[in-house]
Amino acid sequence: MESPTYGDVIASTDLAATAELAYLDRSGTPRLRSVTPMLMRGEPVVTLTYADADLAREISSSPRVCLVFSDSRLAYAGWTPLAVQARAELEPDPEGDTFQDHLLDQELRKFPPSRRYLDSILLRRENWWYVPRLILRLRELDAPLPVGRRRAPEHGVIAWRAGSGLLADSVRVDDWDSDRIPLRSLAGNEGLGLADAPAALFYHDFSVPDMELRTSFLVTGRLTNGRLRVEERAGSRSLGKLPGLIARWRAERQLRKRCEAGIDGKP
């Protein structure tokens, strides 16, 4: 498989609707979450609302992070599956000015659920708490590595600790419920089978094209000889059904409270 280039990283950041971000938590354990990749002044960035203020600080304190492009759904042509290590630099934007000037159009295009809060000046005024952002600028990028494209429910993303940083790959998962999950690299990368380190296996899914339903599943443990010895599981791989009006109202109310709390304690 041909090695991707820095130009592929920039193009994929621009063209992809979703990506996975791997990082080391405060205990040194790998974690992953889904993110919306965007470009700001020619650099890859991701943003979090102030509801995730603690998470933003944790990601920025990780020695290295790894941005993975493995899901081509809703992406434009020219997208390349790859993984690239970087340093995450946190830039608080408590008024949302930088976000609105440089990233708003990308957010609206790539993440449809945000349109109910941001799609007009009036909506942005009414939902002022959703506008402020914690911007994570990805800098000091390493050479990107190829990964395979995820196409099926048995596909996931694995990240494992490597020195002071971490590596990632897309994998086929033969048995999600096993205590020792066998994994196979979708790109045939040999590093997966050679690793012996703390690791995390991640799966995320969403409804197409609206992303109204979203789910994620994270398994942490130790990766040895291409198998993940499970220590903890969290989340679900099932999208479920669209919640009712009351449940959605409660979820939005809770999101607003968390955003306001994060803004009051600006990092």
The biggest beta sheet is recorded as:
8 strands, antiparallel
- Helical coverage, percent range: 25-40%
What is the CATH C-level name?
Mainly Beta
The radius of gyration computed from the alpha-carbon positions, rounded to a whole number of angstroms, is 18 Å
Which strand-content bin applies to the residues?
35-45%
Task: Give the overall shape, derived from the CA principal axes.
Answer: globular
InterPro entries: Split_barrel_FMN-bd
Protein name: Pyridoxamine 5'-phosphate oxidase family protein
Organism: Rubrobacter taiwanensis
Structure description:
The structure is a single chain. This protein is of the alpha+beta class. It has helices spanning 6-15, 53-61, 97-110, 115-118, 121-126, 191-194, 245-264, and strands at 19-24, 30-35, 38-40, 43-49, 65-69, 82-93, 133-139, 145-146, 155-162, 165-173, 180-185, 196-206, 214-224, 227-235. The strands form two sheets. Strands 1, 2, 3, 4, 5, 6, 7 and 8 form an eight-stranded antiparallel sheet that branches. The chain has a six-stranded antiparallel beta barrel with strand order 9-10-11-14-13-12. The relative contact order is 0.17. InterPro entries: Split_barrel_FMN-bd. This is Pyridoxamine 5'-phosphate oxidase family protein.
